[in-house]
Amino acid sequence: MTTVYDYYHQLESRIGYRLILGGTRHFGYYEVGSWWPFPIGKALRAMEEELYKMIDLKKGATLLDGGAGTCDVAIYMAKKGLKVKAIDLLDMHVAWGKQNVKAQNVEGLVEVSTMNYQDLAFEDGFFDGAYTMETLVHADDPDQAMREFYRVLKPGGVIAHFEYEHNMINHPSAMSIFTRTNDYAAMPAFQQFSIGTIQQKLEKTGFREVEVRDISLNVVPMLRFFFILAVIPYIFIRLLGLEGRFVNTMAAVEFYRFKESMRFVAIKARKPAQGHSVSKQPISQSLDSAGTRRR
Asked: Which one, of 159, 160, 156, lies nearest residue 272 by Cα?
């Protein structure tokens, strides 16, 4: 199975994210019914604004970015006055993130480090809020990740997940394609995330006041744009049997084809002000080919 390290170090991923999204690792947000995906930067910032509004924290609050990538989201939050601990599994992302934080003059508000969100090195009750932006799908054990998020949040703290869910169970013919694409893109948790699963897992962990927004229609312009870019190369990649080397091209086509069976959700939940405690638990650490702990 492809690891997170493998996926993000592939040449296609490194070039594609830079050229198309400017290094950002998430979808843009559009008005429902929109067709034109440009300017892409404006749509990316709009998605970050949706996250900021959902978290709804006051200036000076402490926030955990779980899977920060190149820190675009963390920087946006910092410019809103929040103090962000931005963590990522990959040293490559951490290095780029630090460069971006410095370039945007928010070094006093964003601290970037290499860390696994399934094994957080923060004390209990440290953060006012936490979030993932299309990164929980990469978790080996999303339940463990949620337990860790719960542990490090203060009583009353908020968690937000902007992630994908699916209804592929009702489409057996598409299930094998979906599984293969998740394998290539190192998204084992997405395989688990049938519709409603993230909410169920949050509630099982102890989170309450769960709110779920389906924002699938708000990402369609970008999803369609990716499909248009990828559909011709996709044909030749399939003919040559090079699917594993062009993961994003495959995903762009397959996810658009089956978009009616998937949804993009924005989920918010809260740790009870007086709730059960979750102690830090040791986890078995699987290593990728570079010896880096995987999510």
From this structure: 156
Residue identified by tokens 């209990």 is 124
Structure-block tokens of residue 89: 């599994």
Query: Six-digit token pair at 140?
Result: 């080996």
The total of other beta-carbon atoms located within 10 Å of residue 282's CB is 6
Rounded alpha-carbon distances, angstroms, from residue 122 to 62, 174, 183: 12, 41, 31
Q: What is the enclosing helix (H) or strand (E) of 13?
A: helix 11-21
Mapped onto helix, strand or coil, the DSSP state of residue 54 is: helix
What is the C-alpha separation between 222 and 43, in angstroms, rounded? Answer: 9
Given a contact cutoff of 8 angstroms between Cβ atoms, the answer to whether 185 and 12 are in contact is no
Residue found by looking up tokens 């198309």 in the block: 20
| Contact of 222 with 31, CB cutoff 8 Å | no
Contact status, residue 84 vs residue 289, Cβ threshold 8 Å: no
Note the pLDDT tens digit of each residue in 149-181: 999 999 999 999 999 999 987 777 778 888 888
Distance CA 256, CA 174 (A): 12
Which pTM was predicted?
Answer: 0.91
DSSP type of residue 45: H
Give the C-alpha separation, 191 to 182, whole Å.
7
Residue 46 contacts residue 222 (beta carbons within 8 Å): no
Burial 138-166, CB ≥16 within 10 A → b, else e? bbbbbebbbbbbbbbbbeebbbbbbbbbb
